[in-house]
Amino acid sequence: MKVLITRKLPRVAIDLLLKNNIAVQVHDSDEPIKFRELVRYGKDADGILSLLTDRIDEKIINRLEKCKVIANYAVGYNNINTKAAKAKNIIVTNTPDILTDATADLTLALLLSVCRRVIESEMFTRSNKFTGWQPELFLGIELKGKTLGVVGAGRIGRAVAKRAAAFGMNIIYFNKSKKTEFELELNAQKVSLTKLIKKSDFVSLHLPLNSETQNLINSEKLELLKPNAVIINTARGEIIDENYLIAMLKKKRIFGAGFDVYQNEPKVNKQLLKLNNVVLLPHIGSATFEARSAMAELAAKNIINVLKGLPPITPVEL
Known about the structure:
Blueprint: E1 2-5, H1 11-19, E2 23-26, H2 35-42, E3 47-50, H3 58-61, E4 69-72, H4 82-87, E5 91-93, H5 100-115, H6 118-126, E6 147-151, H7 155-166, E7 170-174, H8 180-186, E8 189-190, H9 193-199, E9 202-205, H10 219-222, E10 230-233, H11 242-250, E11 256-259, H12 270-273, E12 278-280, H13 289-307
Parallel strand pairs: 1-2, 1-3, 3-4, 4-5, 6-7, 6-9, 7-8, 9-10, 10-11, 11-12
Helix pairs in contact: 1-13, 5-7
């Protein structure tokens, strides 16, 4: 049996596969695998360990002659045509829960960085412009007593809310289903998306990307934000109308925004680079030693189970 790993990953994944007598072909590069290479090496692979940067569409799936499982090294799997995979009886898995804490931590880091103007202040100091304490130098926003609106109360959204509550924030959330335990634990209130955006001082996005969520936070929704609002996106760039948000940020229509994901990732809109009321990160939500290693281990275990005829640990619904 053979597995294609489409990018350099923590060694634990390779070691686990080899230990189970599964040959490994690694695209040993920091760059995404190209279409031709994915087809060439994936054609006779029994399994593929893929990344979000790998677009595994119907054209590629139809060329996978032996593949039984595609294990995505991520929670999201919008890079995979799951309908085409199902048609070929290919199981798709992901790595949920493992990166919950890492992403929740980063969300709070982004929120704090925007509210307290950390990047601006740091660059100011590095530029040797700091001449002494001033009463109105880089004034920001405190978190205590403010309302956080969590859009998507899945594992990550709830973990963010729990951290926010520790800062003394009030929690409201938008979600398809009611989260009773979550409400009782944090005194959180389920509201409509419109009400959430109107009432929130800070809005944090935690939804998967699909046909329902694409451009969910459109121009009409963005216009509902408070003048001092902050919006944070650690989910997927396409969930928000990025161009309209940039226009609002340029006009100082809201206080600021934090981005870990982008609409045309890995390309970052050049207008964002010119703004000082944003914090821009290179999609590092799960970038901790602990999370990335655990993700690699789970992806490998999913492949091993499927190739041994056992149920996958974390299958996605196809």
